[in-house]
Design brief:
It is a single chain. This protein has about 325 residues and is α/β, with parallel strands linked by helices. The chain folds into 2 domains: about 1-150 and about 290-334, 3-Layer(aba) Sandwich (Isopropylmalate Dehydrogenase), CATH 3.40.718.10; about 160-280, Isopropylmalate Dehydrogenase, CATH 3.40.718. The chain contains 12 helices and 12 strands. It has helices at about 15-30, 40-50, 65-70, 95-110, 125-130, 135-145, 170-175, 180-195, 225-235, 255, 270-280, 315-330; strands at about 5-10, 35-40, 55-60, 75-80, 115-120, 150-155, 160-165, 205-210, 240-245, 260-265, 285-290, 295. A 12-stranded mixed beta sheet has the order 3-4-2-1-5-12-11-6-7-10-8-9, with helices on both faces. It is globular.
Length: about 325
């Protein structure tokens, strides 16, 4: 059986990740889930002093000690940082530590030393300058975890789960990349994850249209007829409980959200706007299609507020709670 504790990565050291880690321990150390921070202990100590957030730190090299330590101190697996950045000012010297934190968390999860990982946000621009070759966090996780299929991003908050078929692409490029095969692949991975990790026996998927009124019978665009409807038909023929293309302007209304377990969206903002509107501070990013559990807060590095101790830890806490719940479900199915 896997260790039920979680690994929490460093994220961007110049951002709010350290602040969120400390606040999450302060708020949840008496009720879990237990987590170990893969971080630089001197950095976290300085963050405590700078922000006035007290959390006792205890270094350990064994993630299996996390549950024992967690009630009285924040467990920290100490990694060298190289150079401490100023708040809000990322530097390339920290890139090796950021990537080591992620890779260590993945290795622990693959070995069963932790039940899942939660990643603090990274600043991709800084990593690119240091030679980082991946489009983003998720693609790097897929590579180091040995994922057999392309990872799928799910955004979740109470009452809504969304999956963007095209993700970090400009709108025009995203539309050019949209294909029936891509919709089918994302929907199948989502269906499998809802069954295996969310314990939903018969998942219901709703596929959003692309154009106003889902194309209005072709008068407002033909992507529904040429790309989306064929994908829906393929999925239905494979036994997936799926509807669509659904008019995107009504799909996220309260009375519609109760009719499906996840909405398959055609592009980034179509999926993220409803999540952030419903729960701006508590949304969670869940990566589907990995051999490990991975969640993340649904926000960025907060470089603009890293100076002032005002970062809201709700999304990180929700990410920890969801990761623990997913791990429990996955373990129960073994």
């Amino acid at each position: 059986m896997s260790n039920p504790s979680l690994a929490l990565t460093m994220g961007e050291p110049a951002g709010i990740g350290g602040e969120l880690t400390l606040k999450a321990w302060r708020l949840r150390h008496n009720q879990g889930p237990a987590f170990i921070a893969i971080d630089n202990v001197d950095r976290l100590s300085k963050e405590m002093e700078r922000l006035g957030i007290y959390a006792p730190l205890e270094t350990t090299t064994d993630p299996c000690e996390t549950e024992k330590i967690f009630p009285s101190a924040l467990p920290v697996f100490d990694i060298p940082l190289g150079k401490l950045p100023k708040p809000g000012e990322p530097i390339t010297e920290t890139a090796p530590a950021i990537l080591k934190s992620i890779k260590t968390a993945v290795e622990w999860a693959l070995e069963g030393l932790v039940s899942g990982i939660v990643t603090n946000p990274i600043h991709k621009g800084t990593l690119y300058k240091s030679g980082f070759q991946y489009p983003g966090h998720t693609e790097y996780l897929a590579e180091v975890s040995g994922a057999l299929s392309a990872p799928v991003m799910m955004l979740a908050c109470p009452g809504l789960r969304t999956v963007p078929v095209t993700v970090h692409l400009g709108l025009r490029q995203g539309l050019d990349a949209l294909t029936s095969d891509l919709i089918v692949m994302q929907a199948l991975i989502t269906d499998t994850a809802l069954r295996n990790d969310f314990a939903i026996t018969s998942p219901r998927l709703a596929v959003a249209g692309l154009n106003p009124h889902a194309g209005e019978a072709g008068s407002m665009g033909d992507e529904e007829a040429t790309i989306i409807s064929p994908a829906v038909k393929i999925l239905q023929n494979q036994g997936i409980n799926v509807t669509g293309p659904e008019p995107p302007d009504t799909l996220f209304a309260e009375n519609r959200r109760i009719t499906y377990d996840a909405a398959i969206c055609m592009y980034h903002d179509q999926a993220l706007i409803p999540i952030k509107t419903l729960d701006f501070t508590g949304g969670v990013n869940i990566t589907l299609g990995l051999p490990i559990i991975r969640t993340s807060p649904d926000h960025g590095t907060g470089l603009d507020i890293a100076q002032n101790a005002t970062a809201n830890p709700c999304s990180l806490i929700a990410a920890l709670d969801i990761a623990a719940a997913l791990a429990t479900t996955r373990e129960s199915r073994k």
